[in-house]
Amino acid sequence: MTRRAGFTLVEVLVGLVVGGLVASALISILLGQTRFYERNESTVVAQQNLRAAADLMSAELRLASPLDIIEAELDSVSVRFATARAVVCEVDDIGLTTTLFVFDNVTNANLPAGFRGTAYSGPYAATFAYADNLTGTVVSSGAGPKGVCMAAGAPGTGADADYIELGTFPFQVAAEVGGIVQEYRRLTYRFANSVFGNGVAIWRGSQELAGPFDTDSEFNYWLRDGTKIKGKVPDPQLSDVNAIRIIATAVDENDHFDVERSLEFDIPLRN
Length: 271
Hints:
single chain; 4-stranded antiparallel sheet; 2 domains
């Protein structure tokens, strides 16, 4: 009879304990690496949300002048956003019509349809006059208005629909050939509760753009004299605003990590 070598019960138990400790350590390392990766990913997402929101708001709000501001609140800002621009070709004081060449048109601005207005600037004027909720009525478009505009020196390369004759034009009396006309709608950026998760998001009208952000995110305003207003700007001072300050803190969209990335930047308005 030969004796077979093997492990004693004590050796097996020791091996199991050591193996369990090694496995536990490996699992702990893997979990730590996973959480590190997820935290970094959440940080990157938060930074991307901040940058995306900043880029879009800057691109659109920089086009506004102080006179374009309709409301300035702690959680929102509304401006007049031009959806069409035209040059005056002819003013018919007898027929009470104004002929325009539309040289710029935003076909899908994704803005509410309830608010529309018209702005006018004379040929040598530096600012616009505004008529909220008033727009002209298109009397005709096509070859007729196009011929009038071409005779006045306007380009003849546009489509027929780019040349229009308006009735009930709000600035019929003041309009001059060469003046600039804008049709505008209301553009609102606001911080409001996100529909996708916790915290608030930046909304452009009825569209949620980016988030989540901390609930203390807000708009502040700089006036021409250097005064900073935190909260609502009184109507008489709206035309004195020359920069919009956005203060926001991006947070983890899944609410798993204490990830925060703060943003504070100014958007100067057009002079």
